[in-house]
Amino acid sequence: MQIWLIVSIGGFIGAILRYLLGGLFQGGIATFPVGTLGVNVIGSFLLGFVMYLSEYGGLFSEETRIFLTIGVIGAFTTMSTFSYESFRMLENNEFFFFGANLFMMMLFTLLAVYAGKVCAGYLESAI
Fold it and tell me: How many CB atoms lie within 10 A of CB 9?
């Protein structure tokens, strides 16, 4: 199958998942972007999990890895939304929320990638 088709199908799925889960996480919280944070943490975990299983475990074919990482997870994560929401906090003089957003996004997404790596290692050793 053409790589661009694989990426586009994955992107379609990832975008829908982002919309649904981001809205679910955000709920009624208006000021702090919990939906973006939640989606980015989940996406970081999944990217770490898939990449480590793919690169070190050989579990996924190249096409499956591209479908999942570039397509689904690429459309699912929200760096541009994170950047926009952070900038809006600065414009609104919400400096505490701006700092908390930067700190939590970086910390939690890095920890999520590490957790994905650890889970992939456990799964790989169990197979």
Answer: 14
| Alpha-carbon radius of gyration of the chain | 16
Give one word for 58, left, alpha or beta, with left for phi > 0 and alpha for psi -120 to 50: left
Q: What are phi and psi of 28, to 5 degrees?
A: -100, 10
Q: Which two tokens stand for residue 107?
A: 């910390």
Domain coordinates of the chain in residue numbers?
3-126
pTM, two decimals, is 0.83
Model pLDDT for residues 81-114, shown as the tens digit of each residue: 899 899 999 999 999 999 999 999 999 999 999 9
73-108 burial code (b ≥16 CB/10 A, e <16): bbbbbbeebbeebbeebeeeebeebbeebeeebeeb
